[in-house]
Amino acid sequence: xxxxxxxxxxxxxxxxxxxxxxxxxxxxxxxxxxxxxxxxxxxxxxxxxxxxxxxxxxxxxxxxxxxxxxxxxxxxxxxxxxxxxxxxxxxxxxxxxxxxxxxxxxxxxxxxxxxxxxxxxxxxxxxxxxxxxxxxxxxxxxxxxxxxxxxxxxxxxxxxxxxxxxxxxxxxxxxxxxxxxxxxxxxxxxxxxxxxxxxxxxxxxxxxxxxxxxxxxxxxxxxxxxxxxxxxxxxxxxxxxxxxxxxxxxxxxxxxxxxxxxxxxxxxxxxxxxxxxxxxxxxxxxxxxxxxxxxxxxxxxxxxxxxxxxxxxxxxxxxxxxxxxxxxxxxxxxxxxxxxxxxxxxxxxxxxxxxxxxxxxxxxxxxxxxxxxxxxxxxxxxxxxxxxxxxxxxxxxxxxxxxxxxxxxxxxxxxxxxxxxxxxxxxxxxxxxxxxxxxxxxxxxxxxxxxxxxxxxxxxxxxxxxxxxxxxxxxxxxxxxxxxxxxxxxxxxxxxxxxxxxxxxxxxxxxxxxxxxxxxxxxxxxxxxxxxxxxxxxxxxxxxxxxxxxxxxxxxxx
Length: 558
What we know:
Keywords: Membrane, Transmembrane, Transmembrane helix
Transmembrane segments: 5-23
Strand content: 35-45%
Number of strands: 25
Oligomer: single chain
């Protein structure tokens, strides 16, 4: 009995195979009920399917030694502005106008591939953003803003070691991050809730079009960053293949959405297009890594010598200084800059010019190094003039990113008798001894696209010393008489110190006095008509952060 059942099953299988291979229409019916990725069509004597198209193109993309792609991203949003007024038991809606924003980014992608342990891809772009509000009521002025930036990402493997780096032109890492190859080679094993459209025939331009649609498009989610779980709002992606060569030519992504907000309707639209401009398998012999010491491309270009700077001939001397040495260093600086006809040079050229001018006077130059602040919108460069290896004085040159350009103002000339520190935020402090009991510190900071005076602190070790007219004159200025009276009255004058803060606040300069160990000095301010403040109050005004740390100058050859 068992042998008869087995014989019948074998017979049925033989008949099914015969029918399948003898009748193309039946075979096609069965085949077409497979996953849309695997449905086959015949074209030009070959069987094609979506999966086969991608398998061939993915291999080319993955192993091509040279791959170049151009791209364009566009985004727009519009919103109706509606004001709601409650009138008893009903609401009235009033049209206030519209607001809109747009963003456009051009992309250039380049990939060099030697082997699985040696490859590098870069994606660079220029981005522009704009926002506009148009009011329907004459009570309000229409508003508009715009900005632009650029960026470049590097990723790869060099001798089996992972390499990543990035550059950008403004104060923020703007631009839509994209791993282009994750879009060119989608994950066909992750097609959840994705509809596939492919008809097996080329269009009028000789291209096969494959379209994926879905709310998430999980197959390309990894292209938008590690941990991404969707396609960043794109709901349709169209792949174009050359019908003859089966090579992938271009990719187009689209996304549209509309939703209600508490005060109107918001509509969004975005597109992202890539065109493969070059793909070849010619030998790639070497890969050169970019010299990146700072992610801000403007500052990085200045430090690497790829971007010219325009040094200011002016040197600021805040502290008392040997006039002969001061004049000599100032002359060296001015003559060095005059050596460049249009005033523009690289940092290396400036250093060479300073050295030449110093040697003419029997002096030498030490390039101490640079410090980039953690916001990466400014760099400080320090040069020292020396004689017989003894430093005579130093120049600190700030270079600041201002409106996507570089500016240099307020160079500092610093005495050898003063101590200089610089912190991780690019704030520089100059410490100076005036007398046995008077010391000072002056702070300069990068702020709002410039390098300027921030504050100074003048400290008198004993308040009682302010009863001495000479000491008082160095400390007080217009407040002399009131401070002298205070010094005579204050019970702890022999033991407590006093500090005079001069702080830049929104373009104006204000002075304050801080009494040691006095947490609430307001009553003294009232009695003596002086601007007394607590230590905490003035430190908050300076904008210093207790987490700021002193850093060392970085040598250019490191």
